[in-house]
Design a protein that fits this description.
By secondary structure, this protein is an alpha+beta fold. The chain is about 15% helix and about 25% strand. The radius of gyration is 28 Å and the shape is elongated.
Length: about 350
């Protein structure tokens, strides 16, 4: 009789532990629902992505996702996502939004079946701090409007220039022929691959003669940034090795080919991958018979991968046609300082006087 009572008590104790563990998410018993909070990624100042992993037990899962809060141990009674999961062991990614900037959050995965809700291990993370304030914006002579951001007291355009006229109203010619473009010593612009569909997304590409024309490319009260102004911006954003990621757009509609690790837009600058025109291209010496015209793919490069902006400062090198520029690309955090020939077609951002 004593042995029977002891076995009954032991069975009740083991059953109670299993049920308790299943709710806390620490269950390791075979056949029971388990869930893991795998990682928090792509943290911005308004959102983040959290990965969860569900291992199914004997019962169907009715819900799974991520719950989060500014207090520890968030539950499904608060903010949470609900994801579609398969009938086998699976992972899922949830977008946590909206979040507040410069705030500590706690997140954990959950899954629910007929036995209750199981939670994964809690992960904490900090959202990014917003480094900008909104500026007053500006309208160019064509009537195009540009929002702006203030960074370290300096107001920058929030998108690439698209103007077709100088400040005095004179037209800036659009040049699509490579031979004509290469021979220019006056201002010109083009679309990437001469495709008008690229204009609304990426802006126009200008040669250096356009940005230095005395009639003025920038809107009234604004100017083309100098090499020093670009350097000051990089310093404010933590230095050249990390400024690039803080400049690049990061949104659901971003056209960057890689955004997970190298784009936060913490600066509000919203850089898009506009590519370049004629950056590394020089026409060969005349030959007989004439060389065939180069393909557009040889003249325009890097859309979705890189963007270059002009500065108003020459390098001072013995090659007088070399000008300082800045670029960001899809595979690093950097804002890179490099030289560009004056006949290159690069993007333009303007700074308020």
């Amino acid at each position: 009789m004593k042995n029977f009572l002891y076995l009954s008590f032991l069975s009740l104790f083991l059953f109670s532990c299993s049920k308790s563990d299943s709710v806390s998410g620490t269950n390791s018993s075979i056949g029971l629902l388990k869930v893991q909070t795998y990682s928090v990624e792509n943290i911005n100042f308004t959102n983040a992505k959290c990965v969860g992993v569900v291992t199914y037990g004997q019962n169907a899962v009715s819900a799974a996702g991520i719950c989060w809060s500014t207090s520890p141990n968030p539950t499904v009674s608060g903010l949470h996502t609900t994801e579609v999961v398969s009938v086998t062991a699976t992972s899922f990614t949830s977008t946590l939004s909206p979040l507040s900037a410069n705030t500590t959050y706690y997140a954990r995965a959950y899954a629910t079946d007929s036995n209750g809700t199981v939670y994964g291990t809690q992960i904490s993370f900090n959202t990014l701090n917003i480094l900008y304030t909104s500026g007053g914006g500006v309208t160019d002579i064509d009537g195009g409007h540009y929002d702006s951001v203030k960074l370290n007291g300096v107001e920058w355009m929030k998108k690439n220039l698209e103007v077709t006229k100088y400040k005095n109203g004179d037209d800036i010619p659009q040049v699509t022929d490579v031979t004509q473009w290469e021979a220019l010593t006056t201002g010109a612009w083009c679309y990437y691959e001469n495709d008008t569909a690229n204009g609304p997304i990426y802006g126009k590409l200008y040669n250096w003669y356009a940005i230095t024309d005395p009639r003025g490319l920038a809107p009234a009260g604004w100017h083309i940034p100098t090499d020093t102004e670009w350097s000051n911006l990089a310093t404010f954003l933590g230095g050249e090795n990390e400024a690039g990621s803080k400049l690049k757009e990061n949104s659901a509609t971003s056209t960057w080919d890689v955004t997970t690790n190298y784009a936060t837009n913490q600066s509000g600058f919203t850089a898009v991958p506009a590519g370049t025109g004629y950056l590394n291209y020089h026409l060969p010496a005349p030959v007989v018979p004439p060389a065939p015209a180069p393909a557009l793919a040889d003249l325009f490069k890097g859309k979705t991968k890189v963007t270059y902006w002009w500065s108003a400062t020459t390098t001072g090198s013995t090659a007088s046609d070399i000008v300082w520029s800045r670029n960001v690309n899809s595979s690093t955090d950097q804002l890179v300082r490099s030289g560009a020939i004056k006949s290159s077609g690069l993007s333009v951002r303007c700074v308020k006087n």
